[in-house]
Amino acid sequence: MGHKAVASDAAAPHVLVFPVPAQGHINCMMHFATGLVAAGLHVTFLHSDHNLRRLGDARAAPAADTPRLRFLSVPDGLPDDHARAIGGGIMGLLESLRTKGSVAYRSLLASLVRGAGDNSNDGFPPVSCVFADGLMPFAVDIAEEIGVPALVFRTASACSVLANMSIPRLFELGELPFRSGDDLDEPVRGVPGMEGFLRRRDLPSYFRTCTENHTDPMVKMLMDVTAHSCRARAVVLNTAASLEGSAVAHIATHVRDVFAVGPLHAMFPAPASNASLWRADDGCMAWLDGQPDRSVVYVSLGSLVTISKEQFTEFLSGLVSAGYPFLWVLRPDMVGASESAALREAVTSAGESKARVVGWAPQLDVLRHRAVGCFLTHAGWNSTVEAAAEGVPMVCWPFFADQQINSRFVGAVWRTGLDMKDVCDRAVVARMIREAMESPKIRASAKALARQVRCDVADGGTSAVEFERLVEFIKNLSTSGGSKRAFLQNGGFQSKLY
């Protein structure tokens, strides 16, 4: 996509981008920040202190090649040895950010509005707009209280956001809560536009723990943040018309404005050093170079999933039985050290030419490599759109959050892969890998979708046009908010704790 500067440095708005400090949220919001910089805006990207220390080389001062992008941080309120969101602990992280991190966030944002922060000599004008992760409503509310216009960025798929918006309707129709013994293959009619293919098992994972009085904490939190998003000035989604046009259209009826501006990684490549909390093993690329075209199964279950010993055993046996070389990303915290050792022993016995195991991989480079034939994935939204944009067939083994509904789109809507949810059986793993690697229909569908996504993100495409509209929206907000910010910069705001 070509990039046009839309503002001079002197007049450019200054946007603060604040993701939930988890890898998947950081990834797409970093690409978003890169796009804003390419459009001529100043961007402050707000990490947690913990993650900025992990990144190491993403310093607070602007880099020479991107002088309008800088990195600051606030505490997340958790001790350094806390696992954060790994293994499903996202609720604890979000609560700590709300109750503890929000205090530092308020203070930092107020200083950046006044232009009196430690980095005021960077040449950055006062902050004029905030983009906050939709899972952190406090970040929007605090910005608006201070006098800074704030928008919501949702890092999940549009289809899952729409499912969350539909929770009250699902209760009205009696499709929630699930009851003991309910057939998970029963159709779901309460999510608009998905009546023809959505089943109970395809709803986001937390729907399975719903109760009559909505007391499940995750479901309550999602209902709250979704209602908050509907009241925000606008909602930004990392998606494209070709992927989720119907869902975006339905969302538009519930929110003040919506921008579908993705897949952002395909529009605005971002340096990995600014985003990845793990150091990638680049040696896997040389290993891929030695494999035949479309012969390798790439396996990655993302940055948060953990698996049991039993799942590990079935999964590994299915991979080996499928008969294809495989590249498996096995994070050190995904299974115990003993499982890591066992896997490496299995790889050794299978032969180094048939398998490669790494702690983390440069996923975009891997998916673009000629040797990769299919992607065995947890169907997190970043991984899903990255594979879609490259035309790589998928086998989806979803775990939680939006992964269930994403995998249904892969298998039943786009038909670019297979959905293996709720099953962990070595025979099924092997069979689905073989089908994804060998099916001409799946590969043709994957390539056709990739062509359409490339049209969406190219100049004049739907996502590119939406991004340009969003930049104009930011500029207008920044202009209209100028008088209030001037008041604040002159001492009109008295800080209060959130």
Question: Would you kindly provide a brief summary of this structure?
Answer:
The chain has 498 residues and is an alpha/beta fold. The protein has 19 helices and 13 strands.
Per-chain topology:
Layout: E1 14-18, H1 23-38, E2 42-48, H2 49-55, E3 69-74, H3 90-114, E4 129-133, H4 137-146, E5 150-154, H5 158-165, H6 167-172, H7 217-231, E6 235-237, H8 241-252, E7 258-260, H9 264-267, H10 283-289, E8 296-300, H11 309-322, E9 326-329, H12 337-350, E10 355-358, H13 363-367, E11 372-377, H14 381-390, E12 394-396, H15 403-413, E13 417-419, H16 426-438, H17 440-457, H18 462-480, H19 482-492
Parallel strand pairs: 1-2, 1-4, 2-3, 4-5, 5-6, 6-7, 8-9, 8-11, 9-10, 11-12, 12-13
Question: What are the salient characteristics of this protein?
Answer:
498 residues; alpha/beta; Rossmann fold; 2 domains; 6-stranded parallel beta sheet; 19 helices; 13 strands; 12% strand; globular; disordered C terminus
Give the percentage of residues in beta strands. Answer: 5-15%
State the CATH topology of the largest domain.
Rossmann fold
Please estimate the helix content. 40-55%
Mean pLDDT: 88
Classify the secondary structure makeup into a structural class. Answer: alpha/beta
Which residue ranges are poorly predicted, with pLDDT under 50 across at least 5 consecutive positions? Answer: 1-8, 116-121, 482-498
Question: Architecture of the largest domain, according to CATH?
Answer: 3-Layer(aba) Sandwich
Number of strands: 13
Assembly state (oligomeric): single chain
Question: How many domains in all?
Answer: 2
Termini separation (Å)?
41 Å
**CATH homologous superfamily name of the largest domain?**
Glycogen Phosphorylase B
- Number of distinct helices: 19
CATH class of the largest domain: Alpha Beta
Cα gyration radius (Å): 22 Å
Tell me the overall shape: globular
Biggest beta sheet summary: 7 strands, parallel
**Strand order across the largest sheet:** 3-2-1-4-5-6-7
